[in-house]
Every structure is written in C-alpha cells, then in structure tokens.
C-alpha cells in the first residue's frame, strides 16, 4: 500500500538516511522515537511538503516521489490542530470539499457523516476558538478525512491533550482503524504505541533502528537504547556463558529457560519489572535458582502501583501494586528475596548499538 525505499534527505548537520518502510492497507503503523529524531520529517516527505534527496515513495503501487501535494491521496493532521479560527466546525470540515467544488448537498451529507463519526455533530455551528483541545483535534481529523485519503498521517496527535482527552481520542483512532483506515502515527510515547499500533518502527537519529509487528519488537528489542525507551528497566549485558548459567556484568549468574544456544548465544538479558517475585527473607536458608537477596534502595510511585529499586549486586527495578507493597510492609534499607523464573528471562541474541 505504502512503501518507502532508501529515503535520504539532509538538513545541514542532520540527515535522514536509508529509511525503508512498508505498510499494507489497513495497518496502524507507529513511528516511535525521542523528540528530534526526525520522525515528523518522514510524514512531511510522504505528504509532499518536503522533497527527498534520493529514494522513492510508492502509494498504492504508484510512484509519488515527485507528485504535488494535492495529487497524493494523503491526509496530514498536525499536533497543533491547524484548524481555521475564523470558521465554525461545519465550515472547517467542509473546506477541502469546497475547494474541490463538490455540490452543496453532497458537502452537507459528507460533513454530517464525519461529524457523527467523530462525535462532534452537536458542535457543527460552534466557533472553533471555543472548543477544547480534544474537540479541535477531532475537527482536524474530520476535515482531513473529508476527501477519504488512502493514507492518514498523524503527527503527535495526542501530545497536547490531558489524560481524559487522550483516552477519548485514542478511542476515535481505534474506531478509524477498525473501519479500515491506513494510519501512520508519530509519537515519542511508548504507551501510545502500545495501545494503538499493530506495527511499529523505532526511530532515532534519522534512522529506523528496528521495525516489525508491535508485540515482536517490544518483546525482543535489539539494543539497550530501544529496551530503555520502551520501558524495560532491567537490561543486562552478558559477560560469560557457562554450562548451566549465564553471567551478566561479571557479577551475577542467571539460569534461563533452554540453555542450548547453538550459534545464537545471547549477548544480553532482559527482565520485565513486573515479572519478579518478592518475599521477606532470612539469610542462610536454601534458595532456588535465580533467587537473590537484595536491599531496597528506593521506593517511588509508578504509573501502576510502585517501583522498588533493589540492589542485588546490580540495580534491579521491580514493579508491584500498592496492595503488594502494604503486604510486604517494607521500607528503604530492608532486605528482600527476589525470584525470577527462568521463563521470564528473555535472551537477546544480537543487540545492535545505536
């Protein structure tokens, strides 16, 4: 449906280099990366706002690399809404249809259809200056969808919204996706990608450093940068491999599920902070493999519950609920047993460095 082949463009000291992407019709594709990585530039290249130095862009099997903006079946929604303040909601949505000289009755039907779809039908006569951020963004979406673009481009569409408005707009975007709309969504927010995407590309310093099916990318990050960016806080480089254990950072030994590695020897281990069991301890008792005595160095609120920083010879981050914290009844300086089941230790075979 959309394919980017070897895309390159330079802006002084910054450059986008050798970007390759492929979307199928109906994909929800998220470009995820830190601010300043160059993600929005990719959208502007696809839309035709910027011209590439080299490479090709194909949309629905047509090479659109040199096509004018108006000849590309692409709609772009900006972070700052970019709606017309002097027009009301109905006039904003109708604007691209009037430019295309649609008949009045056809315009009215299309505007009403989109307004109902975006849950803003009751706002059609309102001036946009009086709308909330979420309402403005839905108006911008409706206007962009008016001409039924093959591809919808979203540039940080939730960035300026509060938590409740983000939730509402995410629901709208999921509805669009279920209706078959193909979407590329740029964000720096991992949770946004997790909740919306079916495919992701991790973008940094002008390059795609990993891409694929969302669950596969998030389960097997190919570098420490990606692991930390998607919220994995326990990522350890392997220092040596024994017959029954893997040593990390020349300090701790872990027993992992399936120790037969063949040629794919792990270079790093990854442990999700919610996959670690905690219990109070008495030094000297017999313990199972992957059970470590640790000292709590910090306890702080997290998005869901609390995170404990525990020194087991290396800093280990453990996520628990408020109820679990109350049951453990611990404070900074207390000792805990940390157990990590072998199946919860993920092996990274070939981490790339970016």
Structure commentary:
It is built from nine helices and 20 strands. The protein is α+β, with helices and mostly antiparallel strands. The strands form four sheets. It has a six-stranded mixed sheet with strand order 6-7-8-3-9-10, sandwiched between helices. Strands 13-12-11-14-20 form a five-stranded antiparallel sheet. Strands 15-19-16-17-18 form a five-stranded antiparallel sheet. β9 and β10 form a beta hairpin. The chain is elongated. The mean pLDDT is 90.
| Topology order in helix (H) and strand (E) letters | EEEHEEEHHHEHEHEEHHEEEEEEEEHEE
What order do the strands of the largest sheet run in, or round the barrel if closed?
6-7-8-3-9-10
The total count of strands amounts to 20
Q: What is the mean pLDDT?
A: 90
Question: What structural class is derived from the secondary structure elements?
Answer: alpha+beta
Number of helical segments with 4 or more residues? 9
Share of helical residues: 25-40%
Radius of gyration: 25 Å
In short, what is this structure?
The chain is 25% helix and 32% strand. It has nine helices and 20 strands.
Observed structural traits:
354 residues, 20 strands, 32% strand, 5-stranded antiparallel beta sheet, elongated, alpha+beta
């Amino acid at each position: 449906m959309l394919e980017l082949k070897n895309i390159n463009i330079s802006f002084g000291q910054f450059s986008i280099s050798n970007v390759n992407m492929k979307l199928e019709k109906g994909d929800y594709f998220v470009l995820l990366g830190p601010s300043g990585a160059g993600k929005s530039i990719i959208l502007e290249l696809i839309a035709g706002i910027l011209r590439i130095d080299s490479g090709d862009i194909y949309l629905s099997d047509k090479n659109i690399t040199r096509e004018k903006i108006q000849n590309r079946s692409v709609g772009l929604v900006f972070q700052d809404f970019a709606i017309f303040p002097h027009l009301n909601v109905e006039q904003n949505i109708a604007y691209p249809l009037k430019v295309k000289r649609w008949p009045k009755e056809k315009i009215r039907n299309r505007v009403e259809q989109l307004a109902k779809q975006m849950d803003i039908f009751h706002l059609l006569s309102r001036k946009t200056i009086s709308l909330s951020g979420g309402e403005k963004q839905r108006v911008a979406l409706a206007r962009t969808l008016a001409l039924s673009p093959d591809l919808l481009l979203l540039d940080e569409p939730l960035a300026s919204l509060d938590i409740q408005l983000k939730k509402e707009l995410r629901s709208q975007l999921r509805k669009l996706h279920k209706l078959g709309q193909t979407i590329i969504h740029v964000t720096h927010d991992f949770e946004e990608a997790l909740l919306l995407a079916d495919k992701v590309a991790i973008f940094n310093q002008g390059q795609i450093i990993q891409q694929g099916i969302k669950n596969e990318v998030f389960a097997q990050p190919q570098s420490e940068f990606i692991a930390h960016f998607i919220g994995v806080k326990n990522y350890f480089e392997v220092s040596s491999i024994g017959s029954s254990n893997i040593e990390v950072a020349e300090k701790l030994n872990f027993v992992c599920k399936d120790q037969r590695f063949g040629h794919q020897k792990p270079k790093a281990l990854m442990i999700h902070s919610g996959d670690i069991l905690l219990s109070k301890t008495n030094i000297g008792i017999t313990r199972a493999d992957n059970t470590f005595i640790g000292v709590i160095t910090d306890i702080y609120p997290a998005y869901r519950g609390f995170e404990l920083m525990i020194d087991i010879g290396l800093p280990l981050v453990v996520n628990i609920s408020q109820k679990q914290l109350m049951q453990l009844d611990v404070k900074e300086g207390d000792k805990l047993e940390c157990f990590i089941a072998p199946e919860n230790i993920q092996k990274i075979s070939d981490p790339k460095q970016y």
